[in-house]
Structures are given as structure tokens and as C-alpha cells.
Amino acid sequence: MASVRRILPFCSSFHRTCYSPSVAREGFVVKEFSRKITVQVAPEETVLKFENDTDVGIIEDDITKIQREFNAAKKSFLKIPEALKQMPKMNPEGIYVNKNLRLDNIQVYGFDYDYTLAHYSANLQSLIYDLAKEHIVNQLKYPESCLNFKYDPTFPIRGLYYDKLKGCLLKLDFFGSIEPDGCFFGRRKLSKKEIEEIYGTRHIGRDQARGLVGLMDFFCFSEACLIADIVQHFVDAKLQFDACYIYQDVNRAIQHVHQSGLVHRGILSDPQRYLVKNGQVLHFLKMLREKGKKLFLMTNSPYYFVDGGMRFMLEDFMGNGDSWRDLFDVVIAQANKPEFYTSEHPFRCYDIEKDTLAFSKVDAFLPNQIYYHGCLKSFLQITKWNGPEVIYFGDHLFSDLRGPSKAGWRTAAIIHELESEIRIQNEDSYRFQQAKFHIIQELLGKFHATVADTGRGKTCDLLLKELNEERQMARSKMKSMFNSSFGATFLTDTGQESAFAYNIHQYADVYTSKPENFLLYPPEAWLHVPFDIKIMPHHVKIHGK
């Protein structure tokens, strides 16, 4: 079938300047060019253009002007202008593009299972946390008081880093600097002064980075929370500890509850509590089959767990006698990612009835068979699937996507929290605080360009103090809309992209909240990087000018 080129916009584009005299009187002028949005402060009825002064020293007239502009801005902060309400909304279920992707060139679709095809409820994190803490106490002989710990869903976010040398849990920005309000020792947030005392600077250098471990997948929530709780417990009890040992023990416990099957059996014993039924993902997989695409499932989980989960999630939407395995050309369990992409482990054919692995060599993937282990090299030799025609969906940036991206596969990151974060960013209350923050930031920039650090008068100091307080208030309000401890997953408190966003930019050609979002796009679509996006395409930029 001849390919059809389709360019699909992810949101409405605005190619005209929007201006409202009534809004200008309120103190705002909003300009919309495509998806870049700028907000300008307009004292009285005149829009002020901020220009850098070339004068050196304190210029009283300029300080008075900044004060006047600030007073006008404060009046405009009393209510949200209509112009902000008319800003374009981002699609929470959209597909966002880091690298151009022609779906008509994709012939093979591969999927991870956990948090990709399988959707879990919030109860799963508590299950993992409780099983891990029991292992730490019962097997690793941690104090029995640790059994009193409870998982706190309001504390962690995905994409944090743990410093194995210093014991701090960090949120980093796109360039590897510590977020000022995103550094915790145990459950206590460290001040900027404490961060400087520990690290010398907010920027994490190459040597310091070697001691950091990224917590990037959806299972990391329980891991991050348990690490912080144990550190805090030892601090409160005035017990000496090695931060590296705590990480190793918690990580070992998390690995144990998965590899031993404790988590798997817990989920399958009460699937209603942990799994979310999903007819849309079945519709998506069937659509791909009807279009002649090849499908494979590759997961680190054992077959019995995947089979039980898939049957539960899809049973209400499949006909009698239908099997989820018929949707896939190849099913690989216990693949041992990320080693799968670099090792030379052979594939083993798995006997479902006997729960055993065959000893015969696998040189072809047969229908309705299950395979264990294996490696990328053998996979490509057997299937003859060319790298660029394969796209792989996964939630773990390192285990799922880094290997495929280096091997030439196209990659799709599944980030479930993306949907809720976009909904928050679409809210007028968030956009108002973001606009307010950038206006204050620009006033501060003009202030520092005008006034030297030394020789400030009382008037200057009072103005600077008030500007900083207003900026901090806007930052705090934006942060609290996401997560009270670490803020947004993709953004820092200042609206810059986070280190997690950097990793998505590195390893994911596209990203979205769930695989079935691809149903919104024809399988022949050309997915393009928006021309006006600098880093992360789901962020609408709001700038003060």
C-alpha cells in the first residue's frame, strides 16, 4: 500500500497576534505565535519593553521605574486575565516527538509488559514497599521498628537520583544541577546552605555523578520512599550508617521481591486490587495486526505472571476461545533486559504445561510458543527484522529504551504520570503562576542589571526582598500543584526541564502516557518534532517580556 504522508499537529497552532485592550488595562498582554506564548506587564495602559541599561551603578530613576512596573504587575495579579484562559491546551493523551518518526516505515511493534501493556493501580507501590521492608527486617536484620514504616505516595516522584556516598535523594535539572528545593536527607529537605556545605556547588560534576544512581522506572517510587525512610530512621535513632549499604540493601530487597515471585503472586492473588482492565490496548493491538504489522512481547517477568495479568485485563473484551498470545508473533519472557541487548545468551523454548525449558537450539520462532532469555543478536538473526523498522515501547528509560535506541530500533517511552502533569499545566491557576513567575524573574533581571551588589540603599533592598518573596511564592505554588516534596516529574520549580526530561530526550524518539494513545493517529502518520519546541514538546512556554 502506498504510504500517505500525514502531518499531525499535537495542538492548535496560532499564527496571529492576539490583543485585548481590556486585558491590557488589567496589566497583561498575551501574544501567541504558534505554541510559544509570551506575557507582558503593562502598567497603566502602556506595555513596557524591558531593555538592559548600560549605565553602571545605582540609577534612582530606573529603580523607581522598576518599582512602578512591579506595582502595576501586582495589581494585575489580582485576577486571571481572559487572555490566559484562551491559551491553547496540550493534549494529555497526545504523542510527543523528540525525533521525527514515520509510522508508515514501522513494520514491527515490540512491547514491554509491566507499566506498558499492563496498567497498575496505585495500590501496587504499597505492596512492593511492604514486601521489601519485611525482607530487610527478616533477612537483612534491620531494626524491627522498620516494620512500622508506611509507604507515602505523596513523597517520591520518578527520575530522582540517590547519592550512595552522601545519602541524599536528589532532583536534578536538565544540566545536572541540584534543584534548590529538591534535595532530601532522609525525609528532611536540605536548605541551600546545607546543599552548598555538602556539595560545594549545586552542579554535580563528573566525579560526583559516579556515586549517583537513577531511579527511573515506575517501581522506583517504593524504592525511593523506603531508602528515605530508613535513612531518616537511622538519623532519628542516632545510629551510624553507610549510605551505600542502605541503597544496596534496599535495592537487593526490591529485586528479591520481584525475582522471588512475591510481588507477582501478590498481584495475581488479588488482580482486582492491582490491575486495571483495558479494552483499548486490545483494540490497538488488533488494529496493528489488521494493518499487517508484526508484534512481539518482550518482558523480564515470568510467563505465568504475564499470562495471568493479560487474561485478567483482556478477558472482558475477547471472544470465547481467543487467546492474547494470538496477538503476538513472538513472546519472550524473562528476557533479562538490559543485558538482553549486549549479551549472547541463547533463547530457550518454554514448556507451559511442564514449566520447564527445552535444551534444543532455537533457530526459529514458532507460532504459539513461549521463549525465555535470549539476546538481541540472535533475535535479529532469527526474525530478519531490520532495526529502523522496529519500534519498542517501554517504561524504563535505561532497561527498556537505552539498548534499543543504540541498536537502531525506534523507541516509545510510556510515562503514565505525563497525563496528569499535562492536565495540571493546562489549568489556568498553574499558567497564571507561571506567567507571574516569569514577570518577576524579568524584573529581577532588570534590577540586577541596574543595581550593583554593593552600595545598595534601603529602598533597593526592600524592593529586592519583595521581588524575591513574590518569585518564591509563585515557585512554591507551582510546585505544590504537582508533588509537595519534589514538584513535577518533567520540570524544575523554575520551569526548566528536569534530568528525567533529559533522559527521555536522549532515549525516547516519542513519548506518551499509554500505548493505546496511538489509536488517535493513523498507522501511516508522519510524527514530526514541532518546529517551535526547544526541548520537551508538551510544555507550553510562558515568558515575561
UniProtKB/TrEMBL annotation:
Positions bound to GMP? 114
Q: Name one GO molecular function term.
A: metal ion binding
**Cofactors required:** Mg(2+)
Residues of the active site are: 112 (nucleophile), 114 (proton donor)
Instruction: Provide the alphabetized UniProt keywords.
Output: Hydrolase, Magnesium, Metal-binding
Transmembrane portions of the chain: none
Q: How is the cofactor bound?
A: Binds 1 Mg(2+) ion per subunit.
The protein's name: HAD-superfamily hydrolase
Q: What phylogenetic lineage does the species belong to?
A: Eukaryota, Viridiplantae, Streptophyta, Embryophyta, Tracheophyta
